[in-house]
Amino acid sequence: xxxxxxxxxxxxxxxxxxxxxxxxxxxxxxxxxxxxxxxxxxxxxxxxxxxxxxxxxxxxxxxxxxxxxxxxxxxxxxxxxxxxxxxxxxxxxxxxxxxxxxxxxxxxxxxxxxxxxxxxxxxxxxxxxxxxxxxxxxxxxxxxxxxxxxxxxxxxxxxxxxxxxxxxxxxxxxxxxxxxxxxxxxxxxxxxxxxxxxxxxxxxxxxxxxxxxxxxxxxxxxxxxxxxxxxxxxxxxxxxxxxxxxxxxxxxxxxxxxxxxxxxxxxxxxxxxxxxxxxx
Amino acid sequence: xxxxxxxxxxxxxxxxxxxxxxxxxxxxxxxxxxxxxxxxxxxxxxxxxxxxxxxxxxxxxxxxxxxxxxxxxxxxxxxxxxxxxxxxxxxxxxxxxxxxxxxxxxxxxxxxxxxxxxxxxxxxxxxxxxxxxxxxxxxxxxxxxxxxxxxxxxxxxxxxxxxxxxxxxxxxxxxxxxxxxxxxxxxxxxxxxxxxxxxxxxxxxxxxxxxxxxxxxxxxxxxxxxxxxxxxxxxxxxxxxxxxxxxxxxxxxxxxxxxxxxxxxx
Amino acid sequence: xxxxxxxxxxxxxxxxxxxxxxxxxxxxxxxxxxxxxxxxxxxxxxxxxxxxxxxxxxxxxxxxxxxxxxxxxxxxxxxxxxxxxxxxxxxxxxxxxxxxxxxxxxxxxxxxxxxxxxxxxxxxxxxxxxxxxxxxxxxxxxxxxxxxxxxxxxxxxxxxxxxxxxxxxxxxxxxxxxxxxxxxxxxxxxxxxxxxxxxxxxxxxxxxxxxxxxxxxxxxxxxxxxxxxxxxxxxxxxxxxxxxxxxxxxxxxxxxxxxxxxxxxxxxxxxxxxxxxxxxxxxxxxxxxxxxxxxxxxxxxxxxxxxxxxxxxxxxxxxxxxxxxxxxxxxxxxxx
Lengths: 280, 266, 336
Prior knowledge:
Chain B is α/β, with parallel strands linked by helices. Chain B has helices at 2-13, 62-65, 76-87, 112-120, 128-139, 142-154, 161-165, 190-203, 213-217, 225-239; strands at 19-25, 31-36, 70-74, 97-102, 105-109. In chain B, α3 (76-87) packs across α4 (112-120). Chain C has helices spanning 8-20, 98-102, 104-112, 118-125, 175-183, 209-217, 224-228, 237-241, 286-305, 315-319, 326-335; strands spanning 2-7, 24-31, 34-39, 65-74, 77-82, 91-96, 127-132, 158-162, 167-172, 188-189, 248-254, 258-265. Chain C is globular, with a radius of gyration of 21 Å.
């Protein structure tokens, strides 16, 4: 008889810390309840998991913490549907389920010696935060690191403390922006949509990888700007977030053309996206 | 048949409609809904007893709406579905044309008032096989009836063909898909199936035009149309109202009158 | 492989024997006006005089509702209880048509490629497939167009083909088939002189699936989809009767304190299948969902899993309330 293990059985993780990021947006720091499972668990930047509140179901988010910090994993979510609403009601000390890590990765090793340009919008900073911390923990392997992050309003910016921390570092260039009308009187960042701000910043494409995460409309207008700035399509990376259930290429939900976001993604280059149907 | 094809051709030629939604011979003896956009194609239109789909179901479909103003080939249940949709503010006067079928004649109707008159003078009784099936169920003891539906509904695998075939099931998010809270269990287990079909019957109470399209659509031959037809007949008897007869009508289960009978309360 | 013969009456004896061994036998039975697979209780109910069952035998391997695990919470602690797969019954699929048996390979490819779905794999391990070749077909059958045939032995452990009134050729194809023979060797006769070919249904080849596969590769934005899917009502009837369709949903049932996690059938034809929590839907209209069904079966699955997602059983055409006939859909597409 073949020995089998249940693909759909989650790990149990304990909520160690809850951070209120923005209205309706929280970050959980999660620790394995089982030491052996913790030691076996490895992931890389870009991967995601299925988080569950038992009785409500599962929900897909990226792992928002860096693999270089292996004591815990973090996830950031916005209250949207049934599971995220239930997550919102949990407290520190509660346990949740986690399946993963799933999907492909940002090829950080292959980016060594290059400059990194991170462009994120709204709630899409979390998938990038994992890569940013990973890159900062390996700071000497990369040249310039630039982060452009925008949100609708000042209160919608997530990871405010970390943004401040990154801003004070001499080895990172951080630009924050809010949509016109979203600024507060004491706002010191820029005002304008991410693609417009990017166009004015005009970062060099020379030996640089651009990583773009954000709402579809932001991505749609950011790619042409990057192209204009001289970024080759295979030097522009993004992640897709199709609806999924299984995370392992079986439930049939996250097809984009013949690819599954859960197995072939979630990380794709602009060059790949151009070859794929716009089914995301 | 020729009268129908002629009316359809004229409606297209005179720009009264951009598309005729009708029936044609399909495969394996089945009938098929077709969307006729040119006068030359009107010859494909046909009408017979095997035309059980309720074509009013297509009015709300975005791809069909894009084709322009439709003319519906309308046996009585389709016409009643149009009036019921109008009474629920789902369509407006002038949105569509109806090619009403009755006794081999085709009558072009564009005003709701004309449709109401047409329906009023057409008998609305159930098909005899459905009437007999309902009477058989009514004669059963509650235990027998429970057994009957238990065995029928347990087979359901929740493909939702019944819902998809029903012109009155137009909600963009059905109750089964609302999950905060999860009113109806998603899986097709016996309890989930019971809750789904009873909920659907209640949501159609006073709104079902008794076309039977849901039962015909069921790939497993579960006679779910008997549930909605029975509830509809009860409402007609108890409250005097009948779905799909008038545009300005009171919906029995969403209006209250002091003189309403309360004999259903146990 | 060895060939033997068996009489109709002896087939019943074999089935009786399997029932007495507490094996679950899924077999075609008359249910009202339909013939469908159901667990066999009485051999009287068995029928082989049909072209095709309404549903495929897929439910025996991939049930419409399946428990994945149970959970229980006490305070902040949660306890998970894994599915006990040791108690899955040995089962026999009897009277499957060769197309149904051929569907096991693509279904397995979905569930066992890369990550192994334990529940599926264990069920398959405990399943013996006794198919019966087709003597007749109807206008919805198109197995020969997708590389399957009315006497195809793929996926079966034992394949029966009727030669005379009550004499069947028995092809013993696998170790499980051999085990059946060993269970009751006295029921089987010597290899018949006649070969099965003359007794098989003649299923006309209606299209070339390789041409279809190749044309689909560049047809994502073809205007055909919008036109052809006008009648599609957006239900899951085609997917649920299909022997290969395997999309599923995962849902919890119970309270946050105690309950179970279930997998249930789902369909790419249903509008909310791909809906994001944000309200965005990558497949917002039905023609896109119909395209997904065709693409998945005839383009994506062959490319990714080296398996066609269709075995030509024709069930989707028979079940469709809007008569979206698959053969015609393919033919029209190839000419579009």
